[in-house]
Structure formats: C-alpha cells, structure tokens
Amino acid sequence: MHSETWDTSNTWNTVARLARRFNAHDDERGLDAAQQWTLQVLKIAEETGEASQAVIGVRGTNPRKGDSHTWQDVHAEVADVIITGLVALARMRPDDAAPYLRQQLAAKAAKFLPPPSPAQASPHA
User: Around Cβ 81, how many Cβ atoms within 10 Å?
Assistant: First the structure.
C-alpha cells in the first residue's frame, strides 16, 4: 500500500483514475472489456463478503473467531464495497458514470421516498 495522500476532493475524478489504472492493468493481461467487467463485478462480491465477515466478527457469531471485528472495521469494508462499485460503474460507463448514477439514484429515491415538498424542491429554499 502506498503512503501518499491523494486529493480525493473530486470523487469522480479519483474513481476515473482508478478505473483507468485497472483497465490498463487488465489490458496488459489481454483481457477484453467483458472479461474486465466480469472480474470487476466479482470484486464487488468479494468486498461484500469481507463486509459480511466483519459484521459476523462484530456480532461474535463465529465460535472459532469470537469477537474479531469492530464496527469501524465494518464501516471500512462498506466503504470498500462502495468504492469498488463506483470503479466498476466507471469502467463500464467511462463517459457518463456520474450522470448515470445520479439518474439511477433519482429513480430509486422516487420508488422509496415521498415526493419532496415545494420548499425542498426549490434550489433557493
């Protein structure tokens, strides 16, 4: 792991840089786009498994390991899932990942949240 501090104030720029780095690595290995995307989605599953393992460790439900994790560990693993998902989206949609995510978030929010009140809908409220 590198010890440098990266300016991550623009999340999507950082995500795009990570996506390009992983694309280049996989290109060097001769993987086509579908193979790269498949492996990236599997990486999301791997990170999700690590988050699940951390929750099991917090709850102490594995008698072999006992209380092996903290909620801080869970938080870090959930962040890894999110970062990996963002990178996956950026690898699959390099030209419009951010607006696509905004569109998908709006569609999900519309299903689960009540419509915003007029005061909330106004940008000057």
Answer: 19
